[in-house]
Design a protein that fits this description.
The chain has 377 residues and is mainly α. 55% of the residues lie in helices and 3% in strands. Strands 1-2-3 form a three-stranded antiparallel beta sheet. It is globular, with a radius of gyration of 22 Å. The chain starts with 18 loop residues before the first strand and ends in a 27-residue tail after the last helix. Keywords: Transferase, Tricarboxylic acid cycle.
Length: 377
């Protein structure tokens, strides 16, 4: 008998120096450094460099990389016109997928699959994902597109392009932390999809567009939006206990709870919970945070012994909401962060590339013969 690993769970197909996860202990590290330390001490720009190069940058290297990102924020005028023509009611992830695919048309290196070209394209993609994502949100909200500014950090620039107003230092830091927490997470579905595409020696834009398609699915990138739907359904904190108890009694899925890898607290959720609590207390204990507090306590009491805890999506939606980001854009924000991990993983894998070609156990009919159409019942 051949054992089938449903969902490829536990299957090892490559090696990586970028990200380590111990789901049983609730540990996530990049280059061996705990995610909590990245969130507290680093920036999205520095983590992006570290993932692409598999090392921490020197001060000079980081300054050069940051300057390259700032210099590459502008997107072609033709693409701005194309994004402006998108139907405002379209799904933002559909818009993002189309825009990034079109972006490759304007890149003279797009068909170059050398490591040097993949790296140069990665820098441009990381920089321009922010501009494209903000433009999509503006079009979706029937607002004029706001051009990027080179004098702002990556996180602050995105919030500026999104709202047209320069964010506070605290808002920019909070968003930067959210980007750091989502930048990479091992061989998740979208990263694996990017690698599968790259293994055919396809171009970098095709790899990233493939990843966007995988991230769009609600089982991967859309969970934080579903958490916000749940909070709106609950309504007020006093209804949270009854709501979640009934859900658990009926064995219904709780969005933002449980994880394919983590059988302990997702370390990213612990970081976001602290910031969500900080924002809630600053604003007078928001309803959303009170509801989540109640849900988390009951879920952990009833399901923690089975390894089911809140994941990163549980609190990320409230953080984005506090930054003025509407829930329909949460998954595009996820992509805005994860593009660093996608690009870094593609570059790493293609250094020792092998075409991915899994197999399946055949369970269909055997010993059959073709029947002429006129003789079929």
């Amino acid at each position: 008998m051949t054992e089938i690993a449903k969902g490829l769970e536990g299957v090892l197909f490559t090696e990586s120096k970028l990200t380590f996860i111990d789901g049983a202990q609730g540990i996530l590290t990049h280059l061996g450094i705990p995610i909590q330390e990245w969130a507290e001490n680093s920036t999205f720009e520095e983590l992006s460099f570290a993932l692409l190069h598999a090392k921490l940058p020197s001060a000079a290297e980081l300054a050069k990389f940051d300057a390259e990102l700032r210099a590459n924020r502008e997107i072609p005028a033709e693409l701005i016109k194309e994004i402006s023509s998108f139907p405002p009611a379209a799904n933002p992830m559909q818009m993002l997928r189309t825009a990034i695919s079109a972006l490759g048309l304007y890149d003279a290196q797009s068909e170059d699959t050398s490591e040097a070209a993949r790296y140069a394209i990665s820098v441009r993609l990381i920089a321009q994902f922010s501009t494209v994502s903000a433009a999509i949100a503006r079009v979706h909200n029937r607002q004029d597109i706001v051009a990027p500014r080179a004098d702002l950090t990556h996180a602050a620039n995105f919030l500026y392009m999104l709202s047209g107003k320069e964010p506070s230092a605290e808002q920019a830091k909070l968003f930067d932390i959210a980007l750091v927490l989502h930048a990479d997470h091992g061989m998740n579905a979208s990263t694996f999809t990017a690698i599968a595409t790259s293994s055919t020696l396809s171009d970098m834009y095709s790899c990233v567009v493939s990843a966007i398609g995988a991230l769009k699915g609600p089982l991967h990138g859309g969970a934080n939006e579903a958490v916000m739907d749940m909070l709106d359904e609950v309504g007020t904190p006093d209804k949270a206990a009854d709501y979640i108890t009934k859900k658990l009694d009926n064995k219904e899925k709780i969005m933002g709870v449980g994880h394919r890898v983590y059988k302990n607290f997702d370390p990213r959720s612990r970081v976001l919970r602290d910031y969500a609590e900080h924002v809630a207390n600053k604003e007078g204990k928001s309803n959303y945070y009170q509801i989540l507090e109640t849900i988390e306590k009951i879920v952990v009491d009833r399901m923690g012994s089975r390894g089911i805890y809140p994941n990163v999506d549980f609190y990320s939606g409230t953080v984005y909401s506090d930054l003025g980001i509407s829930k329909e854009f949460f998954t595009t924000i996820f992509a805005l962060a994860r593009v660093s991990g996608w690009c870094a993983s593609v570059i790493e894998y293609t250094r020792d590339n092998r075409l991915l070609r899994p197999d399946a156990v055949y369970t269909g009919a055997t010993d059959q013969h073709y029947v002429e159409l006129k003789d079929r019942q």
